Protein backbone atom coordinates (compact mmCIF):
# COMPACT_ATOMS: atom_id res chain seq x y z
CA UNK A 1 0.00 0.00 0.00
CA UNK A 2 2.01 2.93 -1.34
CA UNK A 3 0.30 5.70 0.60
CA UNK A 4 0.48 3.86 3.92
CA UNK A 5 4.17 3.07 3.37
CA UNK A 6 4.91 6.72 2.58
CA UNK A 7 3.11 7.88 5.72
CA UNK A 8 5.04 5.38 7.87
CA UNK A 9 8.36 6.40 6.31
CA UNK A 10 7.71 10.08 6.96
CA UNK A 11 6.50 9.54 10.50
CA UNK A 12 9.84 9.34 12.27
CA UNK A 13 11.24 12.36 10.46
CA UNK A 14 8.14 14.44 11.08
CA UNK A 15 7.97 14.06 14.84
CA UNK A 16 9.89 11.98 17.39
CA UNK A 17 7.30 9.23 17.82
CA UNK A 18 4.60 11.62 18.90
CA UNK A 19 6.21 13.10 22.00
CA UNK A 20 6.28 16.63 20.63
CA UNK A 21 10.05 16.78 20.14
CA UNK A 22 10.10 18.78 16.91
CA UNK A 23 8.26 21.85 15.72
CA UNK A 24 4.65 20.95 14.96
CA UNK A 25 4.29 21.04 11.18
CA UNK A 26 2.55 19.32 8.30
CA UNK A 27 4.38 16.59 6.39
CA UNK A 28 4.53 19.01 3.45
CA UNK A 29 5.89 22.53 3.94
CA UNK A 30 3.79 23.92 1.09
CA UNK A 31 0.54 23.20 -0.75
CA UNK A 32 -2.04 24.68 -3.09
CA UNK A 33 -5.63 25.21 -2.16
CA UNK A 34 -7.45 21.96 -2.93
CA UNK A 35 -4.42 19.77 -2.12
CA UNK A 36 -4.15 17.05 0.55
CA UNK A 37 -1.72 17.25 3.49
CA UNK A 38 -0.87 14.98 6.43
CA UNK A 39 -0.13 16.29 9.93
CA UNK A 40 1.25 14.50 12.99
CA UNK A 41 -0.79 15.53 16.04
CA UNK A 42 1.45 14.15 18.77
CA UNK A 43 1.78 11.18 21.06
CA UNK A 44 -1.02 8.94 22.22
CA UNK A 45 -0.23 9.75 25.86
CA UNK A 46 1.64 13.08 25.71
CA UNK A 47 -0.83 15.00 23.54
CA UNK A 48 -3.96 12.86 23.72
CA UNK A 49 -6.34 13.19 26.68
CA UNK A 50 -8.43 10.11 25.82
CA UNK A 51 -7.71 6.51 24.76
CA UNK A 52 -9.13 7.10 21.27
CA UNK A 53 -9.18 10.54 19.62
CA UNK A 54 -12.32 10.99 17.51
CA UNK A 55 -12.36 12.98 14.27
CA UNK A 56 -16.00 14.01 14.78
CA UNK A 57 -14.82 16.03 17.81
CA UNK A 58 -12.06 17.77 15.85
CA UNK A 59 -12.09 20.92 13.74
CA UNK A 60 -9.46 22.16 11.28
CA UNK A 61 -9.08 25.66 9.87
CA UNK A 62 -6.47 27.54 7.89
CA UNK A 63 -5.60 31.23 8.12
CA UNK A 64 -3.92 32.57 4.99
CA UNK A 65 -1.43 35.41 4.58
CA UNK A 66 -4.24 37.97 4.33
CA UNK A 67 -5.52 36.95 7.75
CA UNK A 68 -8.67 35.26 6.42
CA UNK A 69 -9.67 31.98 8.09
CA UNK A 70 -11.40 29.09 6.29
CA UNK A 71 -12.71 25.71 7.53
CA UNK A 72 -11.09 22.59 6.05
CA UNK A 73 -12.07 18.97 5.53
CA UNK A 74 -10.61 16.41 7.95
CA UNK A 75 -10.72 13.24 5.86
CA UNK A 76 -8.88 10.64 8.00
CA UNK A 77 -7.64 10.25 11.58
CA UNK A 78 -5.65 7.22 12.67
CA UNK A 79 -2.81 6.10 14.96
CA UNK A 80 0.45 4.39 14.01
CA UNK A 81 3.10 2.70 16.17
CA UNK A 82 6.86 2.31 15.86
CA UNK A 83 8.34 -0.82 14.31
CA UNK A 84 9.19 -3.37 17.00
CA UNK A 85 12.76 -3.42 15.67
CA UNK A 86 13.21 0.37 15.84
CA UNK A 87 15.49 2.15 18.29
CA UNK A 88 12.44 3.67 19.96
CA UNK A 89 10.92 0.25 20.65
CA UNK A 90 14.28 -1.12 21.81
CA UNK A 91 15.24 1.74 24.12
CA UNK A 92 11.88 2.98 25.36
CA UNK A 93 11.87 3.48 29.11
CA UNK A 94 15.44 2.20 29.58
CA UNK A 95 17.94 3.78 31.95
CA UNK A 96 21.69 3.25 31.67
CA UNK A 97 24.48 4.76 33.81
CA UNK A 98 22.03 6.97 35.67
CA UNK A 99 20.51 8.57 32.57
CA UNK A 100 17.59 7.74 30.27
CA UNK A 101 18.40 6.37 26.84
CA UNK A 102 15.37 8.23 25.50
CA UNK A 103 13.14 10.86 27.07
CA UNK A 104 10.16 9.52 25.15
CA UNK A 105 7.41 7.95 27.20
CA UNK A 106 7.17 4.20 26.53
CA UNK A 107 4.73 2.49 24.15
CA UNK A 108 3.35 5.60 22.53
CA UNK A 109 1.63 5.80 19.20
CA UNK A 110 1.34 8.77 16.89
CA UNK A 111 -2.01 10.28 15.89
CA UNK A 112 -2.10 11.34 12.24
CA UNK A 113 -4.65 13.43 10.31
CA UNK A 114 -5.22 13.60 6.56
CA UNK A 115 -6.65 17.00 5.61
CA UNK A 116 -8.07 18.21 2.31
CA UNK A 117 -7.73 21.94 1.68
CA UNK A 118 -11.42 21.90 0.76
CA UNK A 119 -14.38 23.60 2.41
CA UNK A 120 -16.31 20.81 4.23
CA UNK A 121 -19.70 22.42 3.52
CA UNK A 122 -19.38 23.47 -0.12
CA UNK A 123 -16.84 20.90 -1.33
CA UNK A 124 -14.89 23.66 -3.09
CA UNK A 125 -11.32 24.89 -2.68
CA UNK A 126 -11.21 28.14 -0.65
CA UNK A 127 -9.60 31.22 -2.31
CA UNK A 128 -6.39 31.10 -0.24
CA UNK A 129 -3.96 34.01 -0.66
CA UNK A 130 -0.41 33.00 -1.60
CA UNK A 131 2.23 33.17 1.11
CA UNK A 132 2.70 31.82 4.63
CA UNK A 133 -0.43 30.42 6.26
CA UNK A 134 -1.16 28.33 9.35
CA UNK A 135 -3.43 25.43 10.26
CA UNK A 136 -5.29 25.35 13.56
CA UNK A 137 -6.45 21.97 14.87
CA UNK A 138 -8.69 21.94 17.90
CA UNK A 139 -10.32 19.16 19.90
CA UNK A 140 -11.36 18.78 23.54
CA UNK A 141 -9.52 15.44 23.38
CA UNK A 142 -6.08 16.93 22.62
CA UNK A 143 -3.62 19.21 24.34
CA UNK A 144 -3.40 22.15 21.95
CA UNK A 145 0.13 23.00 23.02
CA UNK A 146 2.89 20.72 24.24
CA UNK A 147 5.65 22.26 26.35
CA UNK A 148 8.78 23.60 24.66
CA UNK A 149 12.37 22.64 25.33
CA UNK A 150 14.34 25.39 23.59
CA UNK A 151 16.42 27.35 26.08
CA UNK A 152 15.73 25.01 28.99
CA UNK A 153 19.45 24.77 29.76
CA UNK A 154 19.96 21.28 28.37
CA UNK A 155 21.09 22.38 24.94
CA UNK A 156 18.12 21.12 22.93
CA UNK A 157 17.57 22.86 19.61
CA UNK A 158 13.97 21.85 18.95
CA UNK A 159 10.69 23.43 20.01
CA UNK A 160 7.57 21.44 20.65
CA UNK A 161 4.38 21.81 18.71
CA UNK A 162 1.46 24.19 18.87
CA UNK A 163 -1.59 22.66 17.19
CA UNK A 164 -3.18 26.11 17.04
CA UNK A 165 -0.44 27.39 14.73
CA UNK A 166 1.02 24.92 12.22
CA UNK A 167 2.85 26.75 9.42
CA UNK A 168 2.50 25.99 5.71
CA UNK A 169 3.22 28.00 2.57
CA UNK A 170 0.36 28.39 0.10
CA UNK A 171 1.41 28.30 -3.55
CA UNK A 172 -0.37 29.71 -6.58
CA UNK A 173 -2.93 27.61 -8.39
CA UNK A 174 -5.55 25.05 -7.44
CA UNK A 175 -4.60 21.48 -6.56
CA UNK A 176 -6.57 18.26 -6.31
CA UNK A 177 -7.40 15.96 -3.43
CA UNK A 178 -5.07 12.95 -3.24
CA UNK A 179 -6.94 9.67 -3.78
CA UNK A 180 -4.66 7.81 -1.31
CA UNK A 181 -4.73 4.71 -3.47
CA UNK A 182 -3.36 1.26 -2.72
CA UNK A 183 -2.11 -1.40 -5.10
CA UNK A 184 -4.64 -4.14 -4.46
CA UNK A 185 -8.24 -4.40 -3.17
CA UNK A 186 -8.80 -5.14 0.50
CA UNK A 187 -11.31 -7.93 -0.11
CA UNK A 188 -14.46 -8.53 -2.10
CA UNK A 189 -16.83 -7.43 0.69
CA UNK A 190 -14.87 -4.24 1.42
CA UNK A 191 -14.00 -2.93 -2.04
CA UNK A 192 -16.58 -0.14 -1.82
CA UNK A 193 -14.92 1.39 1.26
CA UNK A 194 -11.94 3.71 1.07
CA UNK A 195 -8.62 1.92 1.70
CA UNK A 196 -7.14 4.40 4.19
CA UNK A 197 -10.34 4.26 6.24
CA UNK A 198 -9.17 0.80 7.30
CA UNK A 199 -6.45 2.46 9.39
CA UNK A 200 -9.01 4.31 11.51
CA UNK A 201 -10.08 2.99 14.94
CA UNK A 202 -13.05 0.61 15.00
CA UNK A 203 -15.84 0.76 17.59
CA UNK A 204 -14.40 -0.56 20.82
CA UNK A 205 -14.78 -1.07 24.54
CA UNK A 206 -11.75 -0.91 26.79
CA UNK A 207 -11.50 -2.96 29.98
CA UNK A 208 -9.18 -1.38 32.54
CA UNK A 209 -8.53 -1.49 36.28
CA UNK A 210 -10.15 0.93 38.70
CA UNK A 211 -8.44 1.49 42.05
CA UNK A 212 -4.93 1.86 43.47
CA UNK A 213 -2.78 -1.30 43.49
CA UNK A 214 -1.02 -2.10 46.77
CA UNK A 215 1.68 -4.32 45.27
CA UNK A 216 3.09 -5.60 41.97
CA UNK A 217 0.33 -6.95 39.76
CA UNK A 218 0.73 -10.31 38.07
CA UNK A 219 -2.24 -10.16 35.74
CA UNK A 220 -5.99 -10.66 35.55
CA UNK A 221 -8.72 -12.88 34.16
CA UNK A 222 -12.10 -11.88 32.75
CA UNK A 223 -15.29 -13.26 31.29
CA UNK A 224 -17.30 -11.29 28.72
CA UNK A 225 -20.65 -12.22 27.18
CA UNK A 226 -21.88 -11.25 23.71
CA UNK A 227 -25.04 -11.77 21.66
CA UNK A 228 -24.04 -13.80 18.61
CA UNK A 229 -26.79 -12.37 16.36
CA UNK A 230 -25.37 -8.86 16.85
CA UNK A 231 -21.90 -9.88 15.61
CA UNK A 232 -21.71 -11.81 12.32
CA UNK A 233 -17.95 -11.66 12.95
CA UNK A 234 -17.05 -12.19 16.61
CA UNK A 235 -15.68 -9.24 18.63
CA UNK A 236 -11.89 -9.37 18.88
CA UNK A 237 -9.63 -8.92 21.93
CA UNK A 238 -6.67 -6.58 21.30
CA UNK A 239 -3.88 -5.11 23.51
CA UNK A 240 -3.92 -1.41 24.39
CA UNK A 241 -0.14 -0.93 24.04
CA UNK A 242 2.58 -2.51 21.85
CA UNK A 243 4.23 -3.98 24.97
CA UNK A 244 5.73 -7.29 23.83
CA UNK A 245 6.15 -8.50 27.44
CA UNK A 246 2.38 -8.80 27.89
CA UNK A 247 0.60 -12.06 27.20
CA UNK A 248 -3.03 -11.52 26.18
CA UNK A 249 -5.00 -14.74 25.67
CA UNK A 250 -8.65 -15.18 24.67
CA UNK A 251 -10.96 -18.16 24.22
CA UNK A 252 -14.48 -18.17 22.72
CA UNK A 253 -17.17 -20.51 24.04
CA UNK A 254 -20.64 -20.91 22.52
CA UNK A 255 -23.41 -21.11 25.12
CA UNK A 256 -25.88 -22.77 22.76
CA UNK A 257 -28.54 -20.15 23.49
CA UNK A 258 -27.56 -17.45 21.01
CA UNK A 259 -24.84 -16.01 23.26
CA UNK A 260 -21.14 -16.62 23.57
CA UNK A 261 -18.52 -16.17 26.26
CA UNK A 262 -15.03 -14.73 25.81
CA UNK A 263 -12.54 -15.75 28.48
CA UNK A 264 -9.57 -13.39 28.64
CA UNK A 265 -6.30 -13.72 30.54
CA UNK A 266 -3.65 -10.99 30.65
CA UNK A 267 -0.23 -11.76 32.19
CA UNK A 268 3.35 -10.66 32.61
CA UNK A 269 5.58 -13.07 34.54
CA UNK A 270 7.68 -10.13 35.74
CA UNK A 271 4.59 -8.21 36.84
CA UNK A 272 2.95 -4.89 36.11
CA UNK A 273 4.09 -1.68 37.78
CA UNK A 274 1.69 0.09 40.10
CA UNK A 275 2.06 3.27 38.00
CA UNK A 276 3.07 4.48 34.53
CA UNK A 277 6.35 6.13 35.54
CA UNK A 278 9.48 5.10 33.66
CA UNK A 279 12.04 3.19 35.70
CA UNK A 280 14.83 0.62 35.46
CA UNK A 281 12.11 -1.99 36.03
CA UNK A 282 11.32 -1.60 32.32
CA UNK A 283 14.89 -2.52 31.27
CA UNK A 284 15.62 -5.89 29.59
CA UNK A 285 16.28 -8.56 32.20
CA UNK A 286 13.41 -7.29 34.32
CA UNK A 287 10.89 -6.33 31.63
CA UNK A 288 7.98 -5.38 33.85
CA UNK A 289 5.01 -3.72 32.18
CA UNK A 290 3.46 -0.38 32.96
CA UNK A 291 0.11 -0.19 34.75
CA UNK A 292 -1.56 1.04 31.55
CA UNK A 293 -0.65 -2.22 29.80
CA UNK A 294 -3.25 -4.04 31.93
CA UNK A 295 -5.89 -2.46 29.72
CA UNK A 296 -7.19 -4.33 26.68
CA UNK A 297 -9.77 -3.57 24.02
CA UNK A 298 -12.79 -5.40 22.60
CA UNK A 299 -13.28 -4.31 19.00
CA UNK A 300 -15.79 -5.06 16.24
CA UNK A 301 -16.41 -3.99 12.67
CA UNK A 302 -19.69 -2.09 12.08
CA UNK A 303 -19.81 -3.65 8.59
CA UNK A 304 -20.43 -6.99 10.34
CA UNK A 305 -22.33 -5.82 13.40
CA UNK A 306 -25.65 -4.23 14.37
CA UNK A 307 -24.28 -2.78 17.63
CA UNK A 308 -24.95 0.94 18.18
CA UNK A 309 -23.54 3.36 20.75
CA UNK A 310 -26.74 3.87 22.72
CA UNK A 311 -27.43 0.16 23.39
CA UNK A 312 -24.03 -1.53 23.09
CA UNK A 313 -24.39 -3.05 26.58
CA UNK A 314 -27.33 -5.10 25.31
CA UNK A 315 -24.88 -6.83 22.96
CA UNK A 316 -21.66 -7.01 24.98
CA UNK A 317 -21.17 -7.24 28.75
CA UNK A 318 -18.33 -7.70 31.20
CA UNK A 319 -19.55 -10.63 33.32
CA UNK A 320 -16.64 -10.88 35.76
CA UNK A 321 -13.02 -9.94 36.30
CA UNK A 322 -10.32 -10.41 38.92
CA UNK A 323 -6.80 -8.99 39.25
CA UNK A 324 -4.08 -10.89 41.10
CA UNK A 325 -0.51 -10.21 42.27
CA UNK A 326 2.65 -11.99 41.07
CA UNK A 327 2.05 -14.75 43.64
CA UNK A 328 -1.49 -15.34 42.39
CA UNK A 329 -3.26 -13.68 45.34
CA UNK A 330 -6.46 -11.73 44.54
CA UNK A 331 -6.13 -7.93 44.60
CA UNK A 332 -9.51 -6.84 45.93
CA UNK A 333 -8.51 -3.17 45.73
CA UNK A 334 -8.71 -3.37 41.92
CA UNK A 335 -11.96 -3.81 40.03
CA UNK A 336 -12.44 -3.99 36.24
CA UNK A 337 -14.52 -1.46 34.34
CA UNK A 338 -15.70 -1.62 30.74
CA UNK A 339 -15.83 1.75 28.98
CA UNK A 340 -16.84 2.43 25.38
CA UNK A 341 -14.08 4.65 23.98
CA UNK A 342 -15.08 4.61 20.30
What does this structure look like?
With 342 residues, the protein is mainly β. It folds into 2 domains: 189 residues, no CATH class; 139 residues, Immunoglobulin-like (Sandwich). 5% of the residues lie in helices and 36% in strands. The chain has 2 helices and 18 strands. The strands form 5 sheets. Strands 1-10-9-3-4 form a 5-stranded mixed β-sheet, with no helix packed on it. The radius of gyration is 22 Å and the shape is globular. The protein starts with a helix and ends with a strand. The N terminus is likely disordered.
Nutshell version of this structure?
This protein is mostly beta strands and 342 residues long.
The run of helices and strands is HEEEEEHEEEEEEEEEEEEE
Structural class: mainly beta
Low-pLDDT windows of residues: 1-23, 148-153
* Through-space gap between termini: 26 Å
Count the E strands: 18
Strand order of the largest sheet: 1-10-9-3-4
If you compute it from the alpha carbons, what radius of gyration comes out, rounded to the nearest whole angstrom? 22 Å
State the shape. globular
β content, as a range? Answer: 35-45%
**Domains, number:** 2
Number of helices: 2
Estimate the mean pLDDT confidence. 83
Helix content: under 10%
Oligomer: single chain
**Main β-sheet description:** 5 strands, mixed
Amino acid sequence: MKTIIKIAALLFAAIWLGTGCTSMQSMSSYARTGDTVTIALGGSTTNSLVPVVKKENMTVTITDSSGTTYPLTLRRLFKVHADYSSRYAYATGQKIAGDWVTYNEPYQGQWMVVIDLIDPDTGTAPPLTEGMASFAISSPELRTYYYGLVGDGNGYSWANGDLASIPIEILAGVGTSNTLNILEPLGSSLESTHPVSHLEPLPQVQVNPSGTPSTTIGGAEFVLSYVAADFSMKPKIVPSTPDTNVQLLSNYISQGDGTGLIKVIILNQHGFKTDNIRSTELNPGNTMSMFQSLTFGVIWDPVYSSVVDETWQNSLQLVSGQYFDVDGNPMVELTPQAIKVR
